[in-house]
Amino acid sequence: MGSAERVIVALDLADAQAAHALVERAPAVRFWKVGLELFTATGPALIEWLKARGCRVFLDLKFHDIPNTVAGACRSATRLGVDLITVHATGGQPMLMAAAAACTGEAARLGIPAPAVLAVTLLTSLDAQLLEQQLLVRVGVSGYVEHLAALAAASGVQGAVCSPLETALLRERCGNDFLIVTPGIRPGGSGEGDQRRTLTPGEALARGADYLVVGRPVTTAPDPQAAFLAIVAEVDG
Ligand SMILES: O=c1ccn([C@@H]2O[C@H](COP(=O)(O)O)[C@@H](O)[C@H]2O)c(=O)[nH]1
By alpha-carbon position, which residue is closest to atom 2 of ligand 1? Predict the structure, then answer.
């Protein structure tokens, strides 16, 4: 896989018009992430538009519900033909197992590839203080992320979303076949915004991530294509 394929750009935009314009300004991007804001505005039409352009799609809706409901959502996502989807690891093992089984079952029924299911461990907008004081989790960030990723792996889920700071730990714990996808990527000089656990693209890849997710450092750049290519060059370097 080339480096450009390993940098996923988050299309966190308000509507289809803004998304189309951004995608057309950054033709080097081959893998786009569609999240809550854009999917709520456009529905599946935007996914179909991206796929018609030959792009890969990460549908990041972070399902979190009872197993039956999540399984249904996973079957619907599978029918969209997306490459990656997310569920929250804190839904627990019955939910994670239902998600994995729903994707593989629906894909087999239709004779299409199943999306890889990624378990979101601890959002990159949370740090040790928030984890302990607001969520009352007292095992520390690394211990919590490691526990949730191991739970996901034991539940048949193909990978996890974590911050770049925990990547090496998860790689060691969950093995080379477990997909590790890291948001919280901040090239030198770009502001953290609401992110709390961040590293640069080069540092994240060096720690063993399979895919990096980058949003605002590309989408708000004056030249999104140049910003994306600079990240790819850093990853290559
Ligand atoms: O823990 C998580 C899980 C998902 N995200 C998503 O990644 C992008 C990051 O965007 P930036 O603009 O680069 O901060 C965004 O779509 C989040 O929903 C995450 O940041 N952290």
Answer: 123
